[in-house]
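Lab notebook, bench 4. Still working through the backlog of constructs that have no structural model yet. Next entry is a single chain of 242 residues. Request: give me the structure tokens for it.
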Amino acid sequence: MGNHIAVIDMKAFYAFVECVERNLDPFTTPLVVCDPTRGDGTIVLSVSPFLKAQGVPSRCRKRELPNIPGLIMAMPRMGLYIKRSAEIISIVLDIVGEDDIHIYSIDEFFVNLDPYLKMYNCTPYQLVRKIQDAITSKTKLVTTAGLSFNMLMAKVALDNDGKKRPPYIAHWGKEDIEKKLWKITPLHKMWGISHGYETKLNAMGIETVGQLAHTDKQLLKNKFGVMGEQLWEHANGIDNTN
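Model written out:
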């Protein structure tokens, strides 16, 4: 992988698809993707950006939904979402080659940008915008993006910055390890740190990614094995994943 990696994520993917299918604005429509015929314990798969902005989590139980007038419960249509996902990847393949895409999930993928910067005579940021604009113009779906020098940093930039506000793209450089990555707290907000690891690290007095980065690597390795080494590397913005 080169030095410019982007991760692109479909905003509220299932709920957005359902809104587009109904000609509704996802930013003003209270829609959830959830089987209305099932009990209160059933999982809500996706909520519209409108609901998310009101503090409704993207994954919750049906019983936890607030009482909102006009709430639309859309029956999940996995076949449709898989079809839209394939369409999105084919749009991206018009811009970059398949060797430079890593599909991470149904609504998220990484792109190695370096081989295309000369070809399109643009900056990494401009190339990501080009991909985002192509997807939106052809599908009406909105994407969020993180851009950085490795996969980990791109993902953390996306999760902690890119998803938050238009134009939904965050570009983190080496200087942002100290300025942004190290400021992340609680620890589970960092990609790759589960609630379980967060609890164990908190018990060691480690509350921020910066504190984790400055913890002795051998100490972490002794406590968590190979995962301890990875935690230390990630906290320092190091990711050798191809």
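Notes after review: The first helix runs from residue 13 to 21. The longest strand covers residues 5-10. Flag for follow-up if needed.
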